[in-house]
Q: What sequence folds into this?
């Protein structure tokens, strides 16, 4: 098993390496370089030369990649063009804020999705299922920016319960942030919960149709005991990976939601840096978001490996 | 039970009949029927709306700014005094067209590469899948924004870019489907007879992975629409003054505390289209016997 | 006092088709299970056996519903109880042993836990007592080292062991009635015989009533006192086991028994035409009418009632059963094949070894041989033109592997395969020329997998015709029609998809596809194992007729020794990828034979309660063949000790033409075995 974990870990690193190549090459082959894009009409003369010098655009690409990658491994993403400051300093508080947002959504979303998924599966094709599944389809398909806009319109503007737009500096404390994140969290959690609940539902239904559940019923195991002992462990195991993929996919949705609520997180930084054509920051963001994706998947793999008896016993037998 | 139905069915069916069969199965459930109805409504609307749009979508008129809905302007007017109804019925055209062609591109390259990887296996497969995984781990929004901001928001950029970014998920599905099929005895049998690889792919493999890939394509379409509208919303999609729901929502959002109509109309338009496509894709998957709820939207 | 433990009265079960039509799959079932007796339920796949067995526990599958009747367990109607009440009966009063224990044990729970769960639910033992009982139960089902077993997960046991665990679990609640749904299907012959032995002993020791569901009359004959025969959702015959198996008075049972290949007979069994109708597709008269040899006009429009004949304690559903009373199922050898072997070699396997082990990159580079113990080793067989040679052995004995390498789908590691005396067949498919490819065709076990589900029969059959003969247009069409005629199917089948065909029809298409190439050799991989017995006989018959007509050579792989005896001219017995014995089939089935052949033949279950299997070897599963010595040393009942463990046994030749690979002297074997 240790070997399997190790292999997954290495594969994750390989993925990140390829991501770094892709982002680097991507920026290289797109027309213009970091300096011309950034400076736009002022890209001539001294300003350009200074910029080129600062970013090291005058040295060959592969050398630049190596020194950039070397610095990144040490946790240094270099300088941002627009703020003229270290990218790390720009990123730090943003990551923290986005993390608060995403973890709140996950902490609410996962248990809720489990409960809803299980309910819909156990009452399959009955009223609870039909109602929850219909709502899930709606909240799953409607884009975040629409649900976020509607939330603001209804809760913040018409009902005036909560602030609609986050107007706080980037480095607020957690408690100052709290009332501001309720609406964004709801917007993100809604779509995520719906996706996951649907997957849990179909996984539970699949297990319920298996021979061993029929056997458990015929053995006289009481219903709820059967659900908790025989159904859920087997149904949730394969769901872990899919849930991880869904969470990772929703990173994109977080970006949009942050923009709608003017939330000072990574997402807004994405838009800002792209609007400013601040390519070094864009590169850094690419690596960071990809690492989040890779880590989430790695954790899911770990969980699966630890919970699956088939893999758990591999090492004891060999 | 499906089998039983087919056993009693003696006559072979032409492809057209098969398609009609699938559509009628899709429409036989309420959710599929609603989905199809919405989708067809939107397609017809997109095609015909230029002929019956009551006003000019780009006519700016400061004196008509932010009028509430009335008999003259059914959905009111926006901050530039343009008719919201006109802009709403025209607002799905670009999105529908771009994402439709985008999905076809996604389907083509994703499907072909996936089948190829499933077939050759071994090192090539490993390497390609690593790269696809790496692309999957870069959030689509970051990549799309970067491309669009550097290359512009023209259709020629958007269609291939969307097609590329939404095709990588199809690679996985097509590869998995191919893997399932090539282990089957009928492939072994064709190999043992000595058919060429091309003939095996064309005759034996394609017909059996087609359904899975088509369903995947239908799903991609709805996600791509979602992604494209998000881009528009962020200001990186359709350029003004072309009416587009995402962009309209984004523009009207700031003023929604006193002009809610300008934001509600495009929201209804966009949401109904996405729900329509989604329900249709669901029904399509069910009609072909594929469960799509177990898949992650990657 | 009521001597019946379960009474089923007029039970009907059905489902709603997509068009809303009600389709019945069990019709008016009435029967009783008496205390302490073992009742067998037999029937073809889809006849409703499992549905009936589940109903006996008050369990109706999702999508099905009862349309009438009751299921009384000790005068209590199970079908009217709620879940709570059923939980008290299930596992405690009635227990089930499922068909595929591997899938019926919850994968995430340890064996010990699953048995303890049953004990907890159905007894009030203390924790310590429960633990002791778990050991007892595992011992009772003869599992080795119970304390270790209890800590294992289901996937860590072999198929036979899983089945035993399922039995132990069912016994935990000390039930009064045990239901067994195909408990041995899917197990190897020797394992099956052992599990049956265990069940028989349990029935004797505990006095539990049993209902034994199976499609296999051989297994039924071993364990049952009474037999119920089902056909498309109805009971057609019910009575004491000897009566049913020796003097069946229903045409279906009569035909079924005649279609089973038996060790005591040589030659092909009689086949029965047609196949069981699909539910919802049953005519207005007797459901067996289409296939019946005894039918009269009455049968076509009137449904016969189940009639009880008290003098022979038998119930039968047939108008004309009296015609059969005089007949017995005693079979005469009517289809004896002429089995002379003419030496005219067409295929020669010389020292063939095949390995699945993948070489590492470095070893590949150094060209180092890493696998010293390949899956298949030292195979020497020469096959004559026009003969049928069979390869037999248990699962994992490498039968299919050898076929695949003949077909060019697997490379041989050592040795060579020669075709038509001079031509070496390349191990690489791509290097074989079109004519060689055409000459050797394959038929697979499961036609569901071997026919492309998206092609019509016409498309399927046109593949080889186009490829090898370049036929097109009308020529192609008429060739296809001709092929269909050859496999006794009408031309209208051309437009059908595989899913619109029955199992037997599908396999006929697969046969037709192989013959379309006009091959010299056809490799048949378990071609009848997925079929019902009555259909199997017809397919065997078809294969035999085609061979006589066209002079094709068959290499026939099967695990079923009776089938092999019926169809083959020569037999090669394999254990763990090594040859044990080879010779003319009439001789291999006689003594002296290799100890492994002896074990295999001993374990065959004949559909006759008076012929008992002889169990000589343990049914352990070996994962790998031993590196040195005799391949069968791990299970051999006659093992000689170190000699067998260290030295590869020599070939010895018997008087009647069979060759045996064993250290025991062949004359000595003869004395020991007779
Ligand atoms: N849930 C269901 N819905 C519809 N039809 C069903 C369902 N379950 C079983 N059937 C049909 O009922 C018939 C009897 O099924 P059953 O499983 O009892 O047969 P069986 O005799 O046990 O067959 P086998 O030997 O293959 O186990 C079959 O034709 C089957 O297709
Ligand atoms: S009733 Fe008639 S058709 Fe049916 S089994 Fe008897 S003889 Fe045959
Ligand atoms: S060689 Fe020895 S182990 Fe092998 S079959 Fe003969 S007696 Fe048994
Ligand atoms: Mg069954």
A:
């Amino acid at each position: 098993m240790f070997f399997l974990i190790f292999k997954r870990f290495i594969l994750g690193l390989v993925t990140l390496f390829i991501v770094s190549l892709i982002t680097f090459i991507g920026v290289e082959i797109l027309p213009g370089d970091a300096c011309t894009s950034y400076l736009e009409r002022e890209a001539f003369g001294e300003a350009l030369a200074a910029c080129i010098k600062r970013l090291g655009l005058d040295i060959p690409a592969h050398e630049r990649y190596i020194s950039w990658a070397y610095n990144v491994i040490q946790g240094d993403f270099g300088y941002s063009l627009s703020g003229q400051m270290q990218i790390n300093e720009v990123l730090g508080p943003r990551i923290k804020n986005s993390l608060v947002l995403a973890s709140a959504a996950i902490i609410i979303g996962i248990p809720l999705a489990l409960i809803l998924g299980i309910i819909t599966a156990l009452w399959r094709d009955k009223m609870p299922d039909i109602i929850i599944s219909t709502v899930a389809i709606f909240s799953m398909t409607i884009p975040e920016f629409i649900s976020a806009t509607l939330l603001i319109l209804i809760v913040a503007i018409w009902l005036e319960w909560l602030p609609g737009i986050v107007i706080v500096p980037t480095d607020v404390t957690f408690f100052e942030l709290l009332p501001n994140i309720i609406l964004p969290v709801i917007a993100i959690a809604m779509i995520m919960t719906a996706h996951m609940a649907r997957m849990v539902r179909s996984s539970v239904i699949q297990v319920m149709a298996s021979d061993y559940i029929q056997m458990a019923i015929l053995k006289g195991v009481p219903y709820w005991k059967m659900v908790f002992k025989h159904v859920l462990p087997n149904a949730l195991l394969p769901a872990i990976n899919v849930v991880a993929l869904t969470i990772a996919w929703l990173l994109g949705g977080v970006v949009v939601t942050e923009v709608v609520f003017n939330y000072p997180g990574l997402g807004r930084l994405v838009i800002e840096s792209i609007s400013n054509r601040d390519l070094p920051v864009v590169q850094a963001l690419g690596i960071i978001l990809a690492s989040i994706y890779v880590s989430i998947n790695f954790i899911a793999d770990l969980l699966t490996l630890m919970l699956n008896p088939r893999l758990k016993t591999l090492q004891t037998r060999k | 039970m499906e089998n039983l139905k087919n056993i009693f069915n003696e006559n072979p069916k032409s492809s057209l009949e098969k398609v009609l069969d699938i559509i009628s199965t899709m429409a036989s459930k309420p959710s599929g029927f609603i989905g199809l109805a919405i989708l067809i409504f939107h397609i017809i609307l997109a095609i015909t709306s230029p002929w019956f749009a009551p006003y000019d979508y780009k006519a700016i008129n400061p004196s008509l700014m932010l009028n509430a809905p009335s008999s003259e302007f059914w959905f009111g007017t926006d901050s530039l005094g343009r008719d919201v109804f006109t802009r709403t019925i025209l607002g799905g055209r670009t999105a529908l067209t771009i994402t439709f062609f985008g999905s076809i591109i996604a389907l083509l390259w994703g499907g072909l590469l996936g089948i190829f990887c499933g077939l050759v296996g071994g090192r090539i497969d490993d390497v390609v899948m690593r790269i696809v995984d790496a692309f999957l781990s870069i959030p689509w929004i970051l990549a799309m924004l970067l491309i669009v901001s550097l290359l512009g928001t023209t259709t020629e950029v958007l269609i291939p870019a969307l097609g590329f970014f939404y095709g990588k998920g199809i690679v996985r599905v097509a590869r998995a489907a191919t893997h399932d099929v090539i282990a089957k005895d009928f492939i072994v049998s064709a190999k043992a007879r000595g058919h060429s690889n091309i003939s095996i792919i064309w005759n034996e493999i394609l017909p059996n992975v087609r359904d899975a890939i088509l369903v995947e394509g239908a799903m991609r379409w709805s996600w791509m629409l979602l992604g494209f509208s998000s881009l528009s919303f962020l200001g990186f999609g359709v350029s003004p003054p072309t009416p587009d729901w995402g962009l309209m929502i984004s523009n009207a959002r700031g003023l929604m505390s006193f002009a809610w109509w300008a934001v509600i109309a495009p929201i209804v338009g966009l949401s109904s289209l996405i729900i329509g496509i989604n329900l249709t894709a669901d029904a399509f998957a069910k009609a072909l016997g594929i469960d799509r709820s177990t898949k992650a939207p990657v | 006092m009521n001597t019946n433990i379960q009474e089923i009265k007029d039970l009907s079960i059905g489902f709603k088709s997509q068009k809303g039509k009600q389709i019945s799959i069990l019709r008016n079932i009435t029967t009783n299970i008496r205390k302490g007796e073992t009742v067998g339920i037999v029937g073809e796949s889809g006849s409703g056996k499992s549905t009936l067995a589940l109903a006996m526990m008050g369990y109706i599958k999702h999508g099905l519903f009862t349309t009438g009747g009751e299921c009384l367990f000790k005068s209590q109607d199970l079908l009217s109880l709620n879940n709570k009440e059923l939980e008290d009966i299930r596992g405690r009063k009635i227990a089930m042993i499922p068909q595929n224990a591997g899938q019926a044990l919850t994968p995430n729970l340890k064996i010990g836990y699953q048995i303890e769960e049953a004990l907890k639910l159905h007894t009030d033992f203390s924790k310590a007592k429960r633990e002791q009982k778990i050991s007892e139960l595992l011992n009772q089902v003869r599992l080795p080292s119970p304390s270790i077993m209890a800590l294992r997960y289901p996937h860590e046991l072999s198929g036979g062991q899983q089945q035993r665990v399922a039995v132990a679990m069912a016994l935990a609640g000390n039930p009064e009635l045990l239901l067994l749904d195909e408990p041995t299907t899917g197990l190897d012959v020797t394992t099956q015989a052992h599990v049956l032995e265990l069940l028989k002993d349990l029935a004797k020791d505990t006095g539990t009533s049993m209902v034994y569901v199976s499609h296999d009359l051989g297994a039924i004959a071993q364990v049952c006192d009474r037999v119920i025969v089902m056909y498309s959702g109805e009971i057609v015959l019910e009575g004491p086991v000897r009566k049913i198996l020796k003097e069946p008075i229903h045409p279906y049972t009569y035909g079924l028994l005649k279609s089973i290949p038996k060790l005591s007979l040589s030659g092909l069994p009689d086949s029965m035409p047609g196949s069981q109708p699909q539910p919802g597709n049953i005519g207005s008269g007797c459901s067996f009418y289409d296939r019946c040899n005894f039918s009269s006009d009455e049968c076509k429009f009137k449904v016969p009632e189940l009639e009880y004949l008290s003098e022979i304690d038998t119930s039968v559903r047939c108008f004309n059963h009296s015609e059969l009373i005089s007949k017995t199922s005693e079979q005469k050898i009517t289809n004896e094949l002429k089995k002379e072997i003419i030496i005219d070699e067409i295929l020669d396997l010389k020292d063939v070894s095949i390995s699945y082990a993948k070489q590492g990159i470095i070893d590949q580079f150094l060209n180092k041989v890493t696998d010293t113990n390949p899956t298949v080793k030292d195979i020497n067989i020469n096959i004559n033109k026009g003969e049928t040679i069979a390869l037999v052995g248990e699962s994992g004995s490498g039968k299919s592997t050898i076929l695949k390498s003949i077909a060019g789908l697997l490379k041989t590691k050592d040795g060579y395969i020669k075709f038509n005396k001079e031509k070496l067949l390349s191990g690489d498919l791509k290097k074989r020329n079109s004519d060689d490819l055409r000459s050797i065709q394959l038929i697979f076990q499961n036609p569901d997998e071997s026919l492309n589900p998206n092609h019509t029969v016409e498309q399927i059959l046109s593949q080889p015709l186009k490829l090898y003969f370049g036929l097109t247009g009308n020529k192609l069409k008429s060739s296809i029609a001709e092929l269909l005629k050859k496999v006794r199917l009408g031309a209208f089948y051309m437009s059908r998809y595989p899913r619109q065909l029955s199992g037997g029809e599908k396999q006929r298409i697969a046969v037709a596809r192989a013959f379309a190439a006009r091959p010299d050799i056809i490799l048949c991989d378990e071609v009848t194992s997925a079929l019902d017995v009555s259909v199997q006989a017809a397919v065997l018959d078809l294969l035999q007729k085609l061979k006589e007509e066209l002079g094709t050579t068959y290499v026939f792989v099967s695990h079923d020794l009776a089938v092999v005896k019926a169809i083959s001219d020569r037999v090669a017995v394999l254990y763990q990828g090594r040859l044990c014995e080879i010779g003319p089939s009439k001789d291999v089935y006689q003594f002296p034979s290799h100890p492994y052949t002896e074990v295999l033949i001993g374990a065959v279950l004949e559909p006759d309660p008076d012929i008992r299997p002889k169990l000589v070897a343990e049914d352990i599963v070996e994962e790998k063949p031993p590196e040195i010595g005799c391949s069968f040393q791990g299970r051999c009942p006659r093992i000689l000790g170190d000699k067998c463990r260290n030295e590869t046994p020599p070939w010895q030749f018997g008087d009647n033409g069979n060759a045996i690979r064993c250290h025991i002297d062949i004359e000595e074997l003869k004395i020991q075995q007779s």
